[in-house]
Amino acid sequence: MTPRLLYWSVRRELWENRSILIAPLAAAGVVLFGFVISATHLPDARRAVLQLDPARQNAVVSMPYQLAAAALILTGVLVAMFYCLGALHNERRDRSILFWKSLPVSDLTTVLSKAAIPLAVMPAVVFVVVIAMQLVMLILTTVILLANGMSITTPGTQVPLFEMTVTLLYGLVTLTLWYAPVWGWLLLVSGWARRAPFLWAVLPPLAVCLVEKLAFDSSNFASMLSNRLVGGFSAAFATGAPHAFSRGLGSRGFGEPNLDPIKFLSSPGLWVGLAFAVALLATAVWLRRRREPI
Amino acid sequence: MPCVEARGLRKAYGSAIALDGVDLRVEEGRILGIIGPNGAGKSTALNAILGLTAYQGELKVLGRDPWTQRDQLMQDVCFIADVAVLPRWMRVSQALDYVAGVHQRFDRAKAEGFLDKTQIKRSSRVRELSKGMVTQLHLALIMAIDAKLLVLDEPTLGLDLLYRKAFYDSLLNDYFDHSRTIIVTTHQVEEIQHILTDVMFINRGRIVLNSSMEAFEARYAEVMAKPEHVAAARALGPIHERQVFGRSILLFDSVAREHLAPLGEVRTPSIADLFVAVIGADPSQARGAAA
After folding, report:
1. What is the Cα–Cα distance from A44 to A46, expressed in whole angstroms?
2. ipTM of the complex
3. Residue from A12, A92, A93, A99 to probe the interface with B (highest B Cβ count within 10 Å)
4. CB B50 to CB A290 under 8 A?
5. Alpha helix positions (H), A39-160
6. CB contact under 8 A, B52 and A292
7. pLDDT tens, residue by residue, B20-72
8. Contacting residues of A for B147, CB less than 8 Å apart
């Protein structure tokens, strides 16, 4: 495997799956559309903010930025999930796997290039689009406030752009690592299922939950699954708050990022998940070598 | 070093045996046609050679084990599996970019030159091209790769006669240069007979006939017997007999032509006729009789 082969393999994924780039941009467009409409009553809103306790001003002002970032992250996660489900399935269904395999690209390189989309490309795309979107929102706000003769330098109403960016970067990295076994599972199912990879990815884990509940009246597997799907935030951030909204609206505000890398790196869930991810991807490589067109 | 060397190649899908102990040796510079009925094991044999399927037995392609070294092998091997494997979403320009990116022996200028002779636009997506144009595109990509072995599995399936002819003409005139080896399977046997140097019949996972074209021409003869000589011709033990316009055509294996000449017009049979004689005589293949 060489970087050149990996580079072209990833480029080819982006050619085929333009939604990886388009979906976050479209989501940013929707967010900006809503923000522009809200901007018509921005001066009134800002006057209302200035009446608040200074400790809460910051939280209210940065709320739209966090909401917008969360919307884009969610979009990225959903697109990456559907990408993974199709990544090793579509090439078998349309028989193009025979073309890809006629070129000197190993199955390992191919699977790694596909895993690189949710593990590296998607977070990078979301990061860049979020930053660009937040800058546009900030510029828009500044222009409107200045046009209405209002101050943009009131201390409590400063948007903490740097902290937000650091938090976004940290959040994306931790979320991506936390979800690594999810990506691995989806890619594995994609390479294995002859049809309906979505159902194969979703129903068997639910079946295990059901059987465990009926047989032992316990829900260890279910809580493990839900911890994997929604527990990333509480593993990476100190508050333990389940999601961004309540955190942003909380008394601590966004200006004091509560990143907790020590806790994240020392959580067994992270490392067990990564080990699972490696095993799942290795199986996907093994399958890619053996599976034939369907 | 032979280009392909197989010993005791076996492959079973459950209880169905696709390859039943095939021994095969293809020397460099040959054009081998593998002919067989549907389900005979042709594609399985090619897939094994290309590292697309696991197998039992010994197999070396250009000195490599195709199953464990497919990616290195594909530096030197090209294949066209059938007409519809180019990804439909891909643009022509992307296909050129991608192959140029991953294949060090790809000569982009050569591929561009070949495409310039066609109606194919660089900005088109594969799904917008006709079946014939997709094959032209694939051929343009393949022919620009300086490979040692080219494997073609039904490369012209579903194409009209003009595209089929152009395909094999390009292959012979622009590609084949006697240091390369080509292995091709097709049902349109008549169209490739003149380009082959070797022919192999395969049936139910076994090699039924394996011969160079020179040996083929020396060994087999066909006589359009004059009515008064039909009985004498039958006495020489033809392997097959058929009627055309009321005349008997008898096919002989290893019968000297000087014995046949007095009986009627003698000529070399087509591969297709020999195929019918050899494979069609197999009771399991007697579809017409059963129907």
Report:
1. 5
2. 0.88
3. A99
4. no
5. 42-50, 54-87, 90-93, 97-100, 107-116, 122-147
6. yes
7. 999 999 999 999 999 988 888 888 999 999 999 999 999 999 999 999 999 99
8. none
